[in-house]
Specification:
This protein has 283 residues and is of the alpha+beta class. The chain is built from eight helices and 21 strands. The chain has helices at 29-35, 47-53, 78-86, 95-101, 160-165, 170-174, 189-192, 225-233, and strands at 2-8, 11-18, 21-26, 38-42, 55-56, 59-62, 70-74, 106-111, 116-117, 123-125, 132-133, 136-142, 148-156, 158-159, 180-182, 186-187, 199-206, 209-217, 242-248, 263-268, 272-280. The chain binds 2,5-dioxopentanoic acid (DO4) and magnesium ion. This is Fumarylacetoacetate (FAA) hydrolase.
């Protein structure tokens, strides 16, 4: 099953997509993931048009949940270790090499609901960043006990120049308005199957032309989801609906950066395609 949300007349409604049938969902999406969904009436929504245009029949698609907390995992893929290491001048053992090999993963606080955007909503480049990159990641919605309730597409948008200046600036590079894109769907684990065999594709478009493309597969994730969840929830109570973004396996180099007007397109098998325009500054 897939869930999505859309807004009409200022009201947010949650929908359940079962095959091609769309139903209103009664109650909150996290409750539905925890206890099973309570279907309302069938909804006459053309989901393909809503996804393609962001709007359809007065409905505007929005993020599929308001995550109370979003956490990130880092250096989960060898590709991330390699790219992040390029930032560090000292060519000895870097903090990224160390965390890649260590038992304890890098887990960091990423966002709250008000810093998240949905499919077709703008992600941001901070006003004080001149090198910001998208990080396409498999997102996992968790129960308070750490049980995976659903999967989604997450963009862990990161001001790479700020972190590379000094790793202690990580929170400023990661946490700001529009730094986290979620959706379009929450997809239940039974529909996803094996989360370690999903193709991940990233494209950056400028003036309609592709300026970057990259791909990976979640099979390359060194940090398994249960390992990440174990450390996230150790001595750290998280609320139902917490979103964990499991790290990126696609990290473009210094020659790529996000600019105002760019469009980021992330596709993950079984989870759909997330399209977000880029804006710079507070807006
Ligand atoms: O400090 C590095 C952050 C790494 C990250 O966000 C990732 O690997 O996805
Ligand atoms: Mg990341």
């Amino acid at each position: 099953m897939k869930f999505f949300r859309a807004v009409k007349g200022g009201e947010v409604s949650t929908f359940l997509l079962d095959g091609t049938q769309v139903y209103f969902l009664k109650g909150d999406v996290v409750r539905a993931l925890l206890d099973g969904p309570s279907r309302g009436e069938e909804a006459a929504i053309d989901v393909n048009s809503l996804l393609a245009r962001g709007e359809w029949g007065g409905w505007k698609i929005t993020k599929p949940l308001d995550p109370p907390e979003v956490w990130g995992a880092g250096i989960s893929y060898e590709a991330a270790r390699g790219r992040y290491t390029e930032d560090v001048k000292d060519k000895g053992m870097t903090i990224y090499d160390m965390v890649y090999n260590a038992e304890r993963p890098e887990i960091f606080f990423k966002a709250t609901a008000n810093r998240c955007v949905g499919h077709m909503e703008p992600i941001r480049v901070r006003s004080d960043s001149s090198w910001t990159l998208p990080e396409p990641e498999l997102g996992v919605v968790l129960s308070s006990s750490g049980r995976p309730l659903a999967f989604t597409v997450v963009d862990d948008v990161s001001a790479r120049d700020i972190e590379s200046e000094n790793p202690l600036y990580l929170p400023q590079s990661k946490i700001y308005a529009g730094s986290c894109a979620v959706g379009p769907f929450l997809v239940t684990p039974d529909e996803v199957g094996d989360p370690y065999s999903l193709e991940v594709n990233l494209r950056i478009l400028r003036g309609g032309k592709e300026v970057f493309s990259g791909r990976t597969n979640t099979s390359r994730m060194r940090r398994r989801i249960d390992e990440q969840v174990k450390y996230l929830t150790r001595d750290n109570p998280v609320p139902d609906g917490t979103l964990l973004s499991t790290g990126t396996g696609i990290v473009p180099g210094r020659d790529v950066d996000l600019r105002e007007g760019d469009v980021v397109e992330i596709t993950i098998d079984k989870l759909g395609t997330q399209v977000t325009p880029v804006v710079k500054g507070k807006g």
